[in-house]
Amino acid sequence: MVYLTTTLPLISLSINFHHTRHPANKSTYTPNNNVGYFYNLPRNKTAKQGIDIFIKKSVKHKQIPISSNIATLAVEIDIGFKFSVITCYIPPHPNFNSREVIKIADSFSTPSTILGDFNAWSSLWGSSSIKRRGQELEDTTLAKSLVVLNDGQPTHFSTHNSFTHVDIVLSTASIAHKLSSLILKDFHNSDNFPIVTTLSTPSLHTIKPRAKFLTEKADWAKYCSLISSFILEKAISSNINAEASTIKSVILSAAHLAIPQTNTKQFSTKLPYWSKMLSVLRNRKQTLWATYKHNRTINNLIQYKKANATFRKELKNAKRQSFVKFTAYIK
Length: 331
Fold this sequence. Notes:
Blueprint: E1 2-6, E2 16-19, E3 60-63, E4 71-78, E5 82-89, H1 98-105, E6 112-117, H2 132-143, E7 146-148, E8 156-157, E9 163-164, E10 167-172, H3 173-176, E11 179-183, E12 195-199, H4 220-233, H5 240-258, H6 276-294, H7 298-327
Parallel strand pairs: 1-2, 5-6
Antiparallel strand pairs: 1-12, 3-4, 4-5, 6-10, 7-10, 8-9, 11-12
Helix pairs in contact: 1-2, 4-5, 6-7
């Protein structure tokens, strides 16, 4: 499975492509074992835009240069077949030219998905009203036979306390049947709801981890005793191959009984800073958010914002304390 996400913190998945808006004047942490390619627009003039793509180093990919007035980043990925991921950001105020989107779509011969914050309103992706930019983007979508993958749910909670549908996921028809999108219900510390788009791919053969003998914990007296006992039980053969096989079997049988082995069960990594208190605070703010969505009153919104602020404050403090504790052992 391949996962494409929008406005969601970097997550560890088998293959992860990440699009987000983030302040251009702040650094972005990109773990070395996850990132093979990172890009942020060098011409940003405000702290309200920026696009990037994160791809695991093990995934074969290359950057596709795009000449456009729209902030655009594109890569071609090869996972047995080639397809392209294009991420865009269009600020609310600049004039929009639909020819730019057509130009971007025409730049690729491979199956493609286009995702980003277009700041466009159209009923095609769930907006209750349609505006000029939304109409132009809708016409472009239909003209290029693109498929809208949004499920109709809002993607953004504005500063005016209203829900909008500004983040859009488009796909070429040739790959749309393999894609599905889900708009998550939690902000994940953003003002946009994350959109997870999944590309179904053939299952790959995975190699299970092998157990290793913990020789430092071995009971060598028991091991030697078992070797002697097993050898006496085996008949001597004149066939050198059969004798070698017998010796190997005796050694392994004794080792399994006298030497402990590593656990091959795979455990998920736990966050060192997470606690029951953070779980309670997170659940509370999510409950208050659900209450506000059901009954949109100012009081409910204030209660949610207070709970969210408390959660973010405690989360930040927990991360800081965990980091201090970790670095205390570094000399």
